[in-house]
Amino acid sequence: MPNNLDALLARAKSIREDILRMTTEAGSGHPSSSLSAVEVMTALYFGGFLRHDAKNPRWPDRDRFILSKGHAAPVLYAVLAQAGYFPHDQIMTLRKLDSPLEGHPNMRRLPGVEASTGSLGQGLSQGVGHALAARIDQKSYHTYVMTGDGELDQGQNWEAAAAAAKYQLDNLTLIVDRNHYQQTGAAEEVLNMDPIDGKFAAFGWKTQVINGNDMREVLKALDRANAVQGLPTCIVALTHKGQGILNVLRKLGDVNFHGKPLPAKNLDEALAEVAAGGE
Ligand SMILES: Cc1ncc(C[n+]2csc(CCOP(=O)(O)OP(=O)(O)O)c2C)c(N)n1
Ligand SMILES: [Mg+2]
Q: Which atom of ligand 1 lies nearest, measured to the CA of 32?
């Protein structure tokens, strides 16, 4: 476990570097939204949770991962590239004309992308569909969905939450990237959805609240989610938008930094902060 933990922490750093490099090269995209989700994504893809095969992306028994907060595509692309779904240097084509690495994930163009997302609020419903399909097909695959916290403002999430509880979907795990910001400011000021865990519990879900930027806590939470029987699990992952480069973002005077790439002139100091293991 300690060795694995060290490897995962190193992997997380390398994914952060990829996110920064590809978005700065593109001159657009959502690095801060991607950075908050790095520990969860690293744990899922490299910590032994997601059963998947980069050489066989449509393997029927694969676990499903749906990035409902599709604007965080750079973290998904970094993880998929490092897992071997496509050549790693392709990440630098992000958002370029004709690149399959579109601004938001396109399942028709890139192997490993399970759902085309970006219009927020739909991923959990798709996850419910996969989880129900697994049951009907008598398959043991697990479906993971990640939403943002602001994204939970969309009503469709709550229809999906009710349906998941009704059908006792213990093969479904939702991770809410609770980074406290959305596009226009603090998530709870735009529309206060607190307590998020309390709402899911009221809908009949098993809930956990964890530090989502602490790899150990993420690993434990995913383990616990696997053991739950008879109801779906929601992990509220308390994270920081821009985790890993917060000093640079504070210097730039914007800790939300929504939908902005780092200017090229700040890239080296941000990469240095990531290398130093900055918060
Ligand atoms: C249906 C829909 N409405 C609005 C948007 C525009 N939009 C893109 S990102 C975003 C904020 C999302 O905030 P959150 O879910 O907290 O994600 P974060 O970036 O903080 O991880 C919004 C409103 C969208 N993509 N889809
Ligand atoms: Mg948010």
A: 19
